[in-house]
UniProtKB/TrEMBL annotation:
Keywords: Cell membrane, Membrane, Transmembrane, Transmembrane helix, Transport. This is Multidrug effflux MFS transporter. Pfam families: MFS_1 (PF07690). It is a multi-pass membrane protein. Its main location: membrane. The chain crosses the membrane at residues 45-64, 76-94, 100-121, 133-157, 163-183, 213-237, 249-267, 279-300, 306-331, 343-363, 369-389. Gene3D superfamilies: Multidrug resistance protein D. It is found in: Cell membrane.
Amino acid sequence: MTRKKYLTLILILGTLTALGPFSIDMYLPGFPAIAKDLNTTVADVSLSLSSFFIGISAGQLLYGPLMDRFGRKKPLYIGLAGYLLASVACAFATTIEALIILRFAQAVCSCAAAVASVAMVRDLFPVEDNAKVFSLLMLVVGVSPMIAPTVGGYVTAIFGWETVFLILAGMSAAILVAVYIGLPESSKPDPGYSLKPRPIISRFILVLKEPQFYTYALSGAVSFAGLLAYVSGSPLLFMEIFQVDEKEYGWIFAFLSIGLIGSSQVNSIMLRKYRSERIIFTALIAQLAIGGVLLAGTMFGWLNLYATIACIFLFLCCLGFTFPNASALSLAPFTKNAGSASALMGATQMGIGALATVVLSIFSNHSAVPMAGVMAASAILSLLILLLGQKIIRKRGIKYTPSATATGALH
C-alpha cells in the first residue's frame, strides 16, 4: 500500500468515524437556545442526546450483519442518505418530543458510518497495525470536539440552532461522495450469510463467548461512558453553573479535546515499546485517581472553573490511551466475523454510554456532582472488569498474536 493510498484511507475512515461525534458535539452549545425555543428545560433537551446514544447502540446491531451480508459500501450508502434526511428534519422540529425521536433516527442512520469504519480497519490493515490505525483515526476524530462545539457556538449565536443540523446534512452529503470515489469495497458480499434472527443472534453469542472480546469491549465501553457523561453534563456544568456563553463553551470544549487527541497520538508512540494490555491497565489506574479527585472536589466545592477544566482534561487524556487499545484487542480474535464483532463492540459502548446520560438526566440537581459521580464510577468499574477479564484470559491460556489471529480467529 502506497503512502498516498494509506493516508487517503485514514482520512476517509476518519471522517466516517467523526460523523457521530460531530452529531453530538456541534449542537451542545445550543442546548439553552433549544430549551427556550421548544419551551422546555436543558435537562429535557439532554434527553435528545440520550436518544441519540440509544439509537447508535441499536443501529450498530443492525448494520453489523448487513455489512457482513452485503459488503461494507451498500449499507453505508443507505445509512448516509438516511442521515442526511434525518438531519434536515431535526432542523424543522417544533417540539422536544419530535427532536428526541428524530435524533434517534439520525443516530440509527449514522451507525452505518461507525460500523463500517471499524470493520474496514480490520479488513484493510494487518492486525498488528490496528491499534496504531485506531490512534490515527482518533487524530481525525479529535478534530470534531475541537471544531464542532466552537463552530456550533458561533452558528447558534448568529444563525440559530436549526442551522447546525443543516450543516450536518451537508457534511453527510460530502462524506457520501468521498466514500463513493475514494473508499474501496473491503469485504465481498456473502450470499450465504443469513439475516434471519436466529443465525444473527448465534453469531453475536459466538462473539460474546470470546473472553478477549468481552473483557476489552466491556472494559473499554464502561471507561468510554465517562466521556459521554462529561459530554452530556458539560452544557449544564459550564453554561449554567460557571455561566460561560455559547462561544466560550465551544472554546473550553475544544481545549479539553486536546487531551483526548494528544494522548491517543502518544499512545501510537508508546505501542512501539509497550503492549496494549499494559497501557490500558496504567491508564485506568490514573483515570480512577483523577475521577476520585474530580468527584471529591465537586462535592466539597474545592474546584473552581480552571481546576475543574484541569481535572477533566487529565481524565480525557487517560481515555486517549484506553479506547484505541481496547478496540484493537476486542477485535483481534476475529476475521470474517469482524462486522458483527465491531457492531457489538460499538453497541456496547453506546448502550452503556446512553445509560450514563439517562442517569445524569434522572439525577440532575443543577450541580456537577452527578456528572463527576458517573465519571468516577466508570473508572472504578472499568478497572474491575479489566482485572477480572484478564484473570479469565490467563487461566484459559488465550493469547492472540498477529500470527495466532490469522490462523485461530473465529469465523
